[in-house]
Amino acid sequence: MPKIGEAGAPTPGRKKGQVNKTTALLKDAILKAAEAAGGKGGTVAYLTDQAKDNPAAFLSLLGKVLPTQISGEDGGPVRVGVVEWHIVRPGTDTSSR
Question: What is the three-state SS of 33-84?
Fold first, then answer.
């Protein structure tokens, strides 16, 4: 098998992080189609319509673009609180709770 640089040898390929041309063209075409489908409101209007008409697909898309790691205030841990509601009928003794 020829070594890189010799005739018939494989090329090293794209540089790390460089987007495939086909992928970039497809992404651009999708964004242009969404812009056109949204009319005056553009891509935002189109995505708003999709969120209403196809919530499962929209939420799947949303899950792919949201950050995968979240943090709380000032970079600290996320605080979770619980709120409990107790329905009490008038005249009911609640002293045992």
Answer: HHHHHCHHHHHHHHHHHHHHHCHHHHHHHHHHHCCCCCCCHHHCCCCCCCCC
